[in-house]
């Protein structure tokens, strides 16, 4: 069971490391290992071209983070973008947060479609004119120009994390956000870059007693005082910032008792939660661990409400997956706009969707060979038992280097973005 | 016996991962190393509690292993016997070492190269992440007074034992 080096599939820097729609779904941002952010914008639907139903085109590309070197610790800091989160739009410009392992940046993306022309003191190239030659007064006029989209870094929030940042989350007050690393969570105000408040600290006094780390964190979508964070032990803690300044004591603690019949060397690894997401309603949280996705009711702490098997056929292959490091892959999970369907990725460029109401699930594949533009995706199936049917693929034929870790769902429509290594796939629901 | 083989294999894979992680771009990944150390401890428990004779890399004969402090029951170990929290067992192992006789201690050390390495690297998390390449040997030389004085994570390895180890084991201890 091979896991070939990612670099055999093109430039390693192009590997997409995060995908996120903005709040209206008009924009889609991707971040990659090379520290770049690419933003796609949905075309305005026009009556002339009905068949081109709002396709996404590149809107802006910029270098968000560069590789850095920490001289004190002799460590290189990777430029890979770990997460992007959009701020809700409040004026003509768009704002997003992007983070690498150590530094969070606030970017402003704005359009410029007019240019001032006819300066009094400058010539057409912008050079200052000799004052002696100026005999008349004229006021610059704004004239249309080709649309230019510019991205400027408005804030840099640095030097607040000793460990690697895994999550950022914008608060519903739109004034604050949090950043979480392996052991700590900090609260920031967007206006203040030289200070942050530490709200969670699970670092033990003696590092030798370390047993768990923070793996993901998110603010409640409506209650600005509430957030959750997940741990490597498969637990989720819900905290209320009104209770105390340092939220080391949780308000709620979500944990499912372990199934003793499933115990193995790798039980701890596969129970580590790789992603946690609130539902849009704020009533549920969804967690992803290596083999399952779980939906929890905020009012029930002792076990999840629903558990979905993503690729249970891997349970017997855990040792090989440990050897080739695939067992450490961190899959994300997403809700659709109405919280009725959840989606997560798997291997072989497969991704899975689970309908919570009908209890039906589907496996789809994101690959060039299998999907031409406007073709309907065919459901895929992995063969577990002996006899393999014609269209099925056997577990041993799965390509473990083709993993879908990052996906996103449009906030209101059935449009999904799926990142397959260095390719981005956007799928839309067929209408009519 | 198969469990011991499997455990041994997992220990060597885990040690390799920890070793490789130190050269990785972006620094040591705390989460991944923590998970690897947990696997290492589980494998170590199985390895040490399996009553079958140990595996030796140098091919030296396996002496009997009576009274291993860490062996919970003597019964069939295997993957099922990992009920107790992995964190508790290493502590007990270290605590019982000073309690036991020095002779028993010695016997423990000479039981097998791999068993040594497992107890060295399995005892604590931060011990796995010690940076200095030569740190292992330096610490070993300072440990003449015996493991009672050792903190968890320090390498409790006699010079004599180091000498007897084959190059593969020595390289890992030196790391």
Automatic annotation (TrEMBL), chain A:
Keywords: Repeat, WD repeat
InterPro entries: PP2A_PR55, PP2A_PR55_CS, WD40/YVTN_repeat-like_dom_sf, WD40_repeat_dom_sf, WD40_rpt
Family stated for the protein in its record: Belongs to the phosphatase 2A regulatory subunit B family.
Protein name: Serine/threonine-protein phosphatase 2A 55 kDa regulatory subunit B
Species annotation: Ceratotherium simum simum
Origin organism lineage: Eukaryota, Metazoa, Chordata, Craniata, Vertebrata
UniProt gene name: LOC101396941
From TrEMBL, chain B:
InterPro entries, alphabetized: IER
Pfam families, per the entry: IER
Positions of region (Disordered): 59-109, 129-153
Family note: Belongs to the IER family.
Designated name of the protein: Immediate early response gene 5 protein
Organism whose genome encodes this protein: Ceratotherium simum simum (Southern white rhinoceros)
């Amino acid at each position: 069971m091979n896991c070939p080096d990612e670099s055999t599939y093109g430039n390693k820097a192009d590997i997409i490391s995060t995908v996120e729609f903005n709040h209206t779904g008009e924009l889609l941002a991707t971040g990659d290992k090379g520290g770049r952010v690419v933003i796609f914008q949905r075309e305005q639907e026009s009556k002339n071209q009905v068949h081109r139903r709002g396709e996404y085109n590149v809107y802006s590309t910029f270098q968000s983070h560069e590789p850095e070197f920490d001289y004190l610790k002799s460590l290189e800091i990777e430029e890979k973008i770990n997460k992007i989160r959009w701020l809700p739009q409040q004026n003509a410009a768009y704002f997003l947060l992007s983070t690498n392992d150590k530094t969070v940046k606030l970017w402003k993306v704005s359009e410029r479609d007019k240019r001032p022309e006819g300066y009094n003191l400058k010539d057409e190239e912008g050079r200052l004119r000799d004052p002696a030659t100026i005999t008349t007064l004229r006021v610059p006029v704004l004239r249309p120009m080709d649309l230019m989209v510019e991205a400027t870094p408005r804030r840099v929030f640095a030097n607040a994390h000793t460990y690697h940042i895994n999550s950022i989350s914008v608060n519903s007050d739109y004034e604050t956000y949090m950043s979480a690393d392996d052991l700590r969570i900090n609260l920031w105000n967007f206006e203040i870059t030289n200070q942050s408040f530490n709200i969670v600290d699970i670092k033990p006094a003696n590092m030798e007693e370390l047993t768990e780390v923070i793996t993901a964190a998110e603010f409640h979508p409506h209650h600005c005082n509430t957030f959750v964070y997940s741990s490597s032990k498969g637990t989720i803690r819900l905290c209320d910032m009104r209770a105390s300044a340092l939220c080391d004591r949780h308000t709620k603690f979500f944990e499912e008792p372990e199934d003793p019949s499933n115990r193995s060397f790798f039980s701890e690894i596969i129970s580590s939660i790789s992603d946690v997401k609130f539902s849009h309603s704020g009533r549920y949280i969804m967690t992803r661990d290596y083999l399952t996705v779980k939906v929890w009711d905020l009012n029930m702490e002792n076990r999840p409400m629903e558990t979905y098997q993503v690729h249970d056929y891997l349970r017997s292959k855990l040792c090989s997956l440990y050897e080739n490091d695939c067992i450490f892959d961190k899959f994300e999970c997403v809700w659709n706009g109405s919280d009725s369907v959840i989606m997560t990725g798997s291997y072989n460029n497969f991704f899975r969707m689970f309908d919570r109401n009908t209890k039906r699930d589907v496996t789809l594949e994101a690959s060039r060979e299998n999907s031409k533009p406007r073709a309907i995706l065919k459901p895929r199936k992995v063969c577990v038992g002996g006899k393999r049917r014609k269209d099925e693929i056997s577990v041993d034929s799965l390509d473990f280097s083709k993993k879908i870790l990052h996906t996103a769902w449009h906030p209101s429509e059935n449009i999904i973005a799926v990142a397959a290594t260095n390719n981005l796939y956007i799928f839309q629901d067929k209408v009519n | 016996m198969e469990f011991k083989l499997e455990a041994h294999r997992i220990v060597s894979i885990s040690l390799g991962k920890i070793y490789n992680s130190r050269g990785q771009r972006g620094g040591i990944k705390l989460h991944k190393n923590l998970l690897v150390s947990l696997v290492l401890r589980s494998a170590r428990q199985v390895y040490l509690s399996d009553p079958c004779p140990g595996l030796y890399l140098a091919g030296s004969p396996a002496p009997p292993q009576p009274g291993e402090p860490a062996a919970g029951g003597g019964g069939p170990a295997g993957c099922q016997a990992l009920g107790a929290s992995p964190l508790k067992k290493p502590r007990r192992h270290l605590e019982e070492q000073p309690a036991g006789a020095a002779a028993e201690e010695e016997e423990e050390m000479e039981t097998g190269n791999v068993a040594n390495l497992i107890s060295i690297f399995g005892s604590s998390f931060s011990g796995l992440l010690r940076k200095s390449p030569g740190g292992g040997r330096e610490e070993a030389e300072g440990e003449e007074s015996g493991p009672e004085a050792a903190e968890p994570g320090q390498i409790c390895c006699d010079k004599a034992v180091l000498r007897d180890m084959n190059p593969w084991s020595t390289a890992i201890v030196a790391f």
